[in-house]
Amino acid sequence: MTDFEIRRFRFNLDEIQVQSELEPKIKNWPVVYTISDSARIYIGESTSAVKRLGQHKKNPAKSQLEVAQVILHERFNISATKDLEARLINYFHGDNKYKVQNEAPGLRDAAYYDKSNYSLIFEQIFDQLRSQGMFTRTLKEIENENLFKFSPFKALNDDQAVAIEGILESIFNPERGSTGNEIVVQGGPGTGKTIVAIYLMKLLMDIASRGGEEDLDTDSFFFEFFTQELSEKLSSWKIAIVIPQQALRATIQNAFKNITGLSSKMVLTPWEVASSESDFDLLIVDEVHRLKMRANMNTAQLNGKFRDNNIAIFGADDNKYTQLDWIRAKSKNRIFLLDAEQSVMPQDLPADVVSKVVSDSISDHNHFKLLTQMRVKGGEEYIAFVSELLANSSSPGLRSFQDYDLRLFNDIREFQAAIAERENQFRLSRMVAGYAWDWKSRNDETGQVKDIEIDGLSLVWNRARKDWVSSEGSPDEVGSIHTVQGYDLNYCGVIIGRDLQFDPLDQKIIFSREDYRDTKGKENNVKLGYFPTDEDLLVYVKQIYRVLLTRGIRGTYIYVVDPELRKYFAKFIQSA
Q1: What's the CA gap between 297 and 70, in Å, rounded?
Q2: Fewest CB atoms within 10 A around its CB: which of 90, 399, 468, 559?
Q3: Where along the chain do the CATH 3.40.50.300 domains lie?
């Protein structure tokens, strides 16, 4: 199934008619098409390309595009063309040669007959379009780009589509009146929580700017929300997305600069929400569990700002107020995306607070669960295994996972070389570690200071604090939890430091406070009278490693410093 044809012609009504007479399939057959100029592109699918192209020509936003291309195949069907359309939109956006003009009204990642063969045809179509100069990168290169990974043009799985439809129905429900909404989307690592947040931002902005326009695809999943009434309502709304983590926030801001209808100014810190002069109609908060409660902040300035925000919002300062309280006070509607097991510091929202957020949303019928694993090729089985391994509850015997490369290394140099080999092969392969070594190179400008010493091998912590994963020196450095949470890697090499050890007498994983070097991560919270015990910190450190061990798409390589813990892991993970 390889014979396809791409017909290229000038985008005007006369030429559209001429082409439809030369090739009847342009009138009545499932096809995929593009219309573009040197800087912009729109991708679509239809069973009548001549009709859709004519509609687009009458749309002022698209009428100035210059060239049309119709992709034809004898065995195209509607399921196949919708799938190919979704893939082309995503890859054109990730390549960033063109500004993609598409809205996000609901692309679905649906299964259909013979899908694997149509995937091969997509690769062939891609190669031909690239040979024409329409793509500047290969498929693999595009897939490694942040613009691709954090794209609002992802085809949604069923969990995500149900969540987004439920969210739209809830926030637009007239019966809510002035009471507003608090909605929770809950999911484990790799279930696409951040994608839901970005998709929603794009979808809401598209509805605001495009309500009821004639050439919107009526088969799109969220077409019913593209009404004039909702467009007028949303056009006056103040909407933002809140990203607590600095590294991920910078990446999302850069992505938003290249998405039509979105702006980096829409991506905020909790501090910026609190100090905003006006309230928000809707806040979408990613990684809610990483919001902070009152504690000793990183700087005296932030301590003062916490106090000032409390006074400005609530009229008085009180240690009970958290960043969650700021967000609730400053917004009418809120969408919270969270995974309580990815809370990694005592300053993060307490578990009981997060649990109440979830339970309240369930009571209000505003709770949505993401279950489908979208990152790790080892699937939910691997995610569950990581949790079991760290909880000392793994089933006996070596474990393996289909299509997933999981290895335990006994030599740190072999571990480093293996990750370097995967970087050469796939790119986006990085070493990460628990915070078990001091960050001595923090202010080093010479590049000579090293942080991590293991069996004579010297390594350095991440030099970039924002978007480290994509920074120039990252393949030779070691990232921490603060630089990789929320990111995908092709291969993740995880160094488990001596902050986690194994007690052979009690046969359990234990925490070493002496070897845990994140001072903020183990600091006493005098303001709230909270003094974390070793058992408290063991929970956080295990959750840090759970996050690190679930970053790798294709595989995870592990080196364990503590010999006894390495022996324990060797019972369940194949040695390299």
Answers
A1: 57
A2: 399
A3: 158-370
- Percent of the chain topping pLDDT 90: 73
Give the distance from CA 45 to its chain's centroid.
27
Asked if the model's pLDDT at residue 179 lies above 80, the reply is: no
Cβ neighbours of residue 530 closer than 8 Å, sequence gap 6 or more: 346, 524
CA 302 – CA 226 distance, rounded (Å): 42
Phi, psi for residue 495 in degrees, rounded to 5: -95, 120
β strands within 524-566, DSSP E? 552-560
pTM more than 0.85: yes
Residue of 103, 287, 273 lying closest to 199 (CA atoms):
103
Measured torsion, CA atoms of residues 201, 203, 204, 206, in degrees rounded to the nearest 10: 120
Tell me if residue 335 falls in helix, strand or coil.
Answer: strand
Q: Does the structure show a pLDDT above 90 at 215? A: no
What's the pLDDT tens digit per position in 19-36? 999 999 999 999 999 999
Helix residue ranges, H only, 257-374: 270-274, 300-314, 323-329, 351-363
Q: Which DSSP letter does residue 336 get?
A: E
Q: What are the backbone dihedrals phi and psi of residue 36, each rounded to the nearest 5 degrees, phi first?
A: -155, 165
At the topology level of CATH, where does 158-370 sit? Rossmann fold (3.40.50)
CA distances from 278 to 102, 253, 268, 273 (A): 31, 21, 14, 9
Count Cβ atoms within 10 A of the Cβ of residue 260 and give its class: 0-12 exposed, 13-18 middle, 19 or more buried. Answer: middle
Using DSSP bridges, classify how beta strands 67-73 and 267-268 pair: parallel, antiparallel or unpaired.
unpaired
* Tens-digit pLDDT profile for residues 386-445: 999 999 887 778 999 999 999 999 999 999 999 999 999 999 999 999 999 999 998 888
- How far are the Cα atoms of 455, 504, 572 from residue 499, in angstroms, in the given order? 17, 16, 21
Alpha helices in 429-511 (DSSP H): 481-484
Alpha carbon distance 24, 50 (integer Å) = 10
Provide the token pair at 256.
Answer: 């938003």
Residue 220 has pLDDT above 90, yes or no: no
Give kind and range of the element (H or E) at residue 12: none
The maximal CA–CA distance of the chain, rounded, in angstroms, is: 83
Q: In terms of DSSP H, where are the helices of 58-98?
A: 78-95
